[in-house]
Design brief:
The structure is a homodimer. By secondary structure, chain A is an alpha/beta fold. Chain A is built from 13 helices and ten strands. The first copy, chain A, has helices at about 20-30, 45-50, 60-75, 85-90, 95-110, 125-135, 155-165, 185, 195-215, 230-240, 260, 280, 300-315, and strands spanning about 35-40, 80-85, 115-120, 145-150, 170-175, 190, 195, 225, 245-250, 275. In chain A, strand 3, helix 6 (about 125-135) and strand 4 (about 145-150) form a beta-alpha-beta unit. The first copy, chain A, is globular, with a radius of gyration of 19 Å. At the A-B interface, helix 4, helix 5, strand 3, helix 6 and helix 7 of A face helix 4, helix 5, strand 3, helix 6 and helix 7 of B.
């Protein structure tokens, strides 16, 4: 941990432990690219867990969130390579929520899961350094394997993340084409025959190419891209632009993305993408698909079944099926 | 505090207490639009304060940051309308840093300062609601008067902030044209003869017009814009596009912006903009301008002098001088 000037010492990194290498290894070990989003939403948590919780007491709600997220991790850690905690739901509970987030990251790491923290952070360079220092790598105080970052502030806001990610064997995922409908408002504006998100994509590809050559990585670098499952045409288009880039694909399930929609994100070996599902797994017991099969008191079974079915769907409808050898 | 579904109940708000009204009132009371950025950077904090602090202990560093920021607040609270804590520097210290941030926001409020939290947050709508719930207004757990937010995810990511800001008499500042050089990379791409930042500006203007009509505000709404002091030409151009919008202007001082550069951000009454200075005030004792006048042991005097001189410069070179009646 270092709160003073951050020194970049890329030469000393252990290349075999790069984020991209670890991600590949974990996906191959679990034979699936499914990522489980940890978005604890009070109103959707099983009633049996929250019945005695005082909603006005942030400590009590944070304790509930921790208990719920740890139960989820217990269920899904044998099945998937990683989790994606969403910062907003923890920040909402103030300091107790941040303690809960810290505990959950630690618990996920103990359970051998990669932790991709969804904070969508960024700022001008000297401040971006502080965010990167906060979150990236097992030596950081928050200990995330990777962090999502926003591109609006441009190259000098991204470079502190890129540099520190390399130094600490961590990764970043830059927002390129987000899963929400409103994402099109600015991302799809066209400049010189190219939408803005494509400019971002080309820059991310450049960063990841540099990461590959630095780390002697054959496939993908440590700079990834967020591309929503809800834009299947653009997913294939962006895969052809970003050849060296891991895709983090949100929007599967509750937001409408299907296994067929995300097929274009993968390479021929079933690598190159991780597909996130938050609500569709965490709150499966409330979904139309599983609520008849599993009652409220079988919510854990619903979580496991939804996870297994997503793994099967991706294996059946995308090249991720080739991971199963 | 409400962690379940957020209900919008705009009709019940107290219009006279809107963020825009409070900001106007505080600027007029202090007769200046100077905002002090709370960016505690360990390496720049006076040596006399940090000499016994163990840099490897986040609790110790957080205690130092709290002591330093409270000392800054003691000096500047009689002089300026508000502060802008930068989340990154607190997040960097993990949970102890978040407790420190919470304590500093409370201390600033006790000292009658507006708190504009610089988090540059955003996400898709349902998650953006959680961020808005976390930060906006005195009823929220973090209790910020306003929050900076990023526009990359488009309208449906901004609307939860806008709606909750109205309900809780809070404000937001949307990144339009950031102060860093790299900001131009995507923000200045031209689509249909207009740079991207201008599309964002036009949308922010629309949101703030709606806020004005909702709150019966004559001048400015509760949806502001971040426009860097380092882009003086664009500041005037953007003022003509965003007539109903408060400007939060970073980049003054250490980043190179001068009082003359920011003149275009103000209206003829000296309102419409707040100008932030972080390093130039907090660490004035280390600057070329003040280090000869004030030694390390007079750092508080340097902070006060730098603040007063910025107030004077803005009064002399912009219409903010008209606030002094």
């Amino acid at each position: 941990m270092n709160y003073t000037n951050i020194k970049y010492n890329i030469a000393t990194q252990m290349k075999k432990d790069s984020f991209s290498a670890r991600l590949t290894q974990k996906i191959q070990a679990k034979q699936t690219p499914v990522l489980v989003g940890l978005d604890p939403r009070f109103e959707l948590i099983p009633d049996s867990l929250k019945k005695s919780v005082d909603t006005q007491n942030p400590f009590a709600v944070a304790t509930l969130f921790e208990r719920f997220c740890k139960a989820i991790i217990d269920i899904i850690s044998p099945l998937v390579p990683g989790v994606k905690p969403q910062c907003a739901f923890f920040e909402q509970l103030g300091v107790p929520g941040m303690q809960c987030l810290s505990n959950i990251i630690e618990y996920a790491r103990q359970n051998d899961l990669l932790v991709i923290l969804d904070g969508k952070r960024n700022d001008i360079g000297s401040t971006a350094s502080a965010y990167a220092n906060a979150y990236l790598g097992s030596n950081s105080i928050w200990k995330a394997d990777a962090l999502t970052v926003s591109p609006y502030l441009g190259d000098d806001s991204l470079s502190p993340f890129v540099q520190l990610a390399e130094e600490r064997q961590a990764g970043i995922f830059v927002l390129v084409k987000t899963s929400n409908a409103g994402g099109a408002m600015f991302q799809d504006l066209v400049s010189n025959n190219k939408p803005i998100y494509q400019y971002v994509a080309e820059y991310v590809e450049r960063l990841s190419e540099e990461s590959c050559s630095l780390n002697q990585l054959t496939y993908y670098g440590n700079v990834g891209a967020v591309v929503g499952a809800t834009w299947s045409t653009q997913l294939s288009e962006l895969r052809s632009i970003m050849k060296k880039v891991w895709f983090l694909v949100p929007g599967y399930g509750s937001q409408g993305g299907t296994a067929a929609d995300v097929a274009g994100a993968f390479d021929e070996n079933g690598l190159g993408a991780i597909v996130n599902n938050s609500r569709g797994i965490l709150f499966a017991h409330r979904s139309a698909r599983y609520s008849d099969l599993f009652g409220e008191n079988q919510w854990e079974k619903a979580v496991e079944t939804a996870t297994r079915q997503m793994i099967e769907s991706l294996a059946a409808e995308t090249s991720a099926g080739k991971l199963k050898t």
